[in-house]
Amino acid sequence: MEGLNFKGNPFDTIVSSGTLCAYNDPVYVLNEMNKWCKWYGQILLMEHGLYSSAPLAWLQKKVDSLNVKMIGCHLDRDIFDIIRSSKIEIDKCERVLGGYLYLIWAKPNKYV
After folding, report:
1. What letter would DSSP give residue 97?
2. Contact 48, 56 (CB under 8 A)
3. What are all long-range contacts of 27-30, with beta carbons under 8 Å and residues at least 24 apart?
4. DSSP code of 29?
5. Radius of gyration of the chain (CA)
6. pTM for the complete prediction?
7. Cα–Cα distance, 10 to 35 (Å, whole number)
8. Which one of 4, 15, 61, 75 has the minimum C-beta count within 10 Å?
9. Rounded to the nearest 5°, which phi and psi values hold at 72?
């Protein structure tokens, strides 16, 4: 999606599953989603990120560079920080699997 370009805001709903780990600039991608989604639309994300458990999060950070080299996926991304740095707004979030998996219902920020 880093290379995609859509004119205006053609989408009612944007769904992204397990992608923020692979983008070079995930905030940029979320900001693009903000532009592409209609003002009344929704952005649905299912993303993995840092565990809630400090020891598991520490381990993720230690093996991140190896994981990126092997499969192109960052394990150490703080999904909340990424979203807070973007223009989209979180409506609801659930974390499952020890806080590793984020289920996020968001909407575009129509004032940006």
Report:
1. T
2. no
3. 27/82, 27/85, 27/86, 28/2, 29/1, 29/2, 30/82, 30/83, 30/86, 30/87, 30/88
4. H
5. 14
6. 0.90
7. 9
8. 4
9. 75, 25
